[in-house]
């Protein structure tokens, strides 16, 4: 684990304390870890699984199955299975 010393202003420290209290964390490090995890999930681009990328390539090639012009066509296709 890496240790980092950071300088926080009063408002940022208050935010860490609020998160710490809301989640019943033992220390501010746990609160900071949660905030960073949420940031990473919501704002950074996720890495896509290779299987998903391969599936996307197949879809682009047109090998993804039948297309439907209406919901009724799709419904008939599903019901005939």
Note down, in words, how this protein is organized.
By secondary structure, this protein is mainly α. The chain has one domain (10-79). Helix content is 62%, strand content 0%. It is built from 4 helices and no strands. It has helices at residues 10-22, 28-43, 50-61, 71-79. α1 (10-22) packs across α2 (28-43). The N and C termini lie far apart (53 Å).
Mean pLDDT: 88
Percentage of residues assigned to helices: 55-70%
Q: Tell me, what's the shape?
A: elongated
Ranges with pLDDT <50 over ≥5 residues? Answer: none
What class do helices, strands and sheet pairing give?
mainly alpha
Q: Please summarize the sheet with the most strands.
A: none
Number of discrete helical segments = 4
Distance between the termini: 53 Å
N-to-C SSE string, H for helix and E for strand = HHHH
What count of domains describes the coordinates?
1
> How many whole angstroms does the radius of gyration measure?
24 Å
Share of β-strand residues: under 5%
């Amino acid at each position: 684990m890496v240790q980092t010393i950071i300088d926080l202003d009063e408002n940022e420290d208050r935010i860490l304390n609020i998160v710490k209290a809301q989640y019943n964390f033992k220390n501010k490090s746990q609160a900071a870890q949660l905030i960073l995890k949420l940031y990473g999930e919501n704002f950074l681009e996720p890495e896509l699984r290779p299987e998903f990328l391969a599936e996307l390539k197949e879809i682009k090639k047109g090998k993804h199955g039948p297309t439907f012009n209406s919901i009724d066509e799709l419904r008939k296709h599903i019901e005939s299975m």
